[in-house]
Design a protein that fits this description.
single chain, alpha+beta, Beta Polymerase, domain 2, Cytochrome-c3 Hydrogenase, chain B, 2 domains, 4-stranded mixed beta sheet, 37% helix
């Protein structure tokens, strides 16, 4: 019989007044190793709501939730954005979903719900009798001055990418400001996750962003296990690591090829897509699905790995590593590629920290943060931060280092796969008035699933924060002062998820 141990992270809960929320959050973030995780709201009953802020202690691998209940009839609270710039999109999303206004927000307007598609008095997650403030018409930032002109792009694009609108304000060919408007495919995933039976919720949770199915499934599983106070068996934890690293490997390899395509470098654009395909084939060997759907689940995994497939996976990873090692210098040591990427789309370390840019994009700007410190299996070796200039080249080089790190993790895990069951039994119900948090270093960076139950043990609030929710702001900042023709390259160097933002 498997002995269950409470899984990380340790959780503490603090209740504050809305007036004191910003002060308390700022004080905690001044402590070494603390960082902002997410901000959202939660309906306490039909009339009352609360603002919730999640903070992460990276040194202890712990999380702290601050809750600020609003008084009856209150639909406003003091904004945190002036002291905490990374909260700016989260506060706007709370305005759309709950009808709560962050007073003092420097650029208050809608985030997800477009007025021409949604009634201005519709707030999908608000309580039936909750006090709300109507959404205001969306207004793009107006940049004025001699020679300023605007270039609107999207939301329908020439390729097969998802919808998003980019409004460039330019002087000639120089971009002075980029405003990004998303929300064109808001699907109501967070609301639906409070309605479906919790044992089936994993199928919806992993579809939040299809290129991060393993990451979302893992974050969901960790959050539910955190609620239940259980941990998966050692073999299941190792198989989860394999799925996560194969997903990371496939996407970073694909991005190297896509970056090559955006600068018209045919060797890179032709050599790397087949390597991505080979990685997806390895993922199918592990999970039965190239996108690794339906594999990770609360309590463990759905499918074991027999020794024949383990040896095939190990051989496949080693063969892939040799091919990637041969091909990477053709891109990252080519003089024309280096010249085209060097200095383009630079994001300074200060702004990367202020806006909590995560993942390889953050590490390319010197943040050094890797959410794998929260992994119950222990943090595997994080990618180095050898080059922190914060430009397209740094982000490409960081992807190369992530590829090497994933290969090492995959090889080590396949060589030392423990022998144990792959699943533990789950109880019939979730505990009442509980909080569960799943923190995963997905391939784009820190991914959060944050689950809160009510007095009946039902899921009352399910919040997801995709790494793109942090990093879209990084893209908007990084492109300033660059040529319009640099945008596709800069955009691909972040390669963010529309669906992960438009939940």
């Amino acid at each position: 019989m498997t002995t269950l141990q409470p899984c990380a992270p340790a959780l503490s809960h603090i209740t504050v007044t809305p007036a004191d929320l910003a002060t308390q959050v700022t004080a905690l973030l001044l402590q070494p190793g603390w960082r902002f995780g997410h901000l959202t709201a939660r309906s306490l009953d039909a009339r009352h709501t609360a603002i919730d802020v999640l903070l992460l202690d990276t040194q202890r691998g712990a999380v702290t939730c601050l809750t600020a209940p609003l008084a009856d009839g209150q639909a406003e609270y003091p904004s945190l954005t002036a002291q905490l710039p990374a909260a700016h999109w989260a506060e706007r999303a709370v305005g759309d979903l709950f009808g709560l206004r962050a007073v003092g927000h420097p650029r208050w307007k809608s985030m997800l719900l477009h007025n021409d598609r949604w009634p201005v008095d519709l707030f999908p997650l608000a309580g039936a009798a909750q006090a709300t403030t109507p959404r205001e018409p969306y207004r793009f930032l107006q940049v004025s001055g001699s020679g300023i002109h605007e270039i609107p792009v999207g939301p329908i694009h020439a390729g097969i990418i998802e919808p998003g609108h980019f409004r460039f304000s330019c002087v000639g060919e120089i971009i002075t400001n980029l405003e990004i408007r998303l929300g064109y495919q808001h699907r109501g995933i967070e609301g639906r996750l409070t309605e479906v039976p919790w044992r089936q919720a994993r199928y919806l949770a992993e579809s939040a962003s299809s290129d991060t199915a393993a990451g979302n499934a893992l974050a969901h599983a960790l959050a539910v296990e955190h609620l239940l106070g259980i941990a998966p068996p050692p073999r299941a934890a190792a198989l989860r690591i394999l799925a996560l690293e194969l997903e990371r490997l496939a996407n970073h390899i694909g991005d190297i090829g896509a970056l090559s395509g955006d600068i018209g470098y045919s060797p890179g654009a032709s050599l790397f897509p087949p390597l991505r395909g080979a990685t997806l084939a390895l993922a199918q060997t592990l999970t039965g699905n190239r996108r690794q759907r339906w594999f990770v689940q609360p309590g463990g995994v759905a499918r074991d790995l027999d020794d024949a497939r383990r040896r095939a996976l190990l051989q496949g990873v080693q063969d892939l590593a040799r091919r990637v090692t041969d091909h990477l210098p053709l891109v990252l040591e080519h003089a024309g590629v280096l010249e085209r990427m060097d200095g383009v789309g630079r994001l300074s370390p200060t702004l990367a920290r202020d806006f909590s840019i995560v993942g390889p994009a953050g590490r390319a700007s010197g943040t050094g943060y890797d959410a794998r410190v929260f992994s119950p299996a222990g943090a595997p070796p994080a990618a180095a931060t050898r080059r922190i200039e914060g430009d397209v080249l740094a982000r490409a080089q960081m992807r190369a280092e992530e590829i090497a790190s994933s290969v090492a993790i995959l090889t080590q895990t396949l060589d030392t796969l423990p022998d144990s069951p792959i699943q533990v039994a789950l109880p019939a119900t979730l505990p009442p008035d509980a909080v569960g948090v799943g923190v995963v270093e997905a391939w784009r960076g820190e991914l959060l699933h944050w689950v809160t139950t009510n007095a009946d043990g039902a899921i009352a609030r399910y919040a997801i924060k995709d790494p793109s929710f942090n990093n879209w702001t990084g893209l908007a900042i990084a492109i300033r002062g660059n040529l319009v023709t640099d945008f596709p390259l800069c955009n691909k160097s972040f390669n963010l998820s529309y669906s992960g933002n438009d939940l």
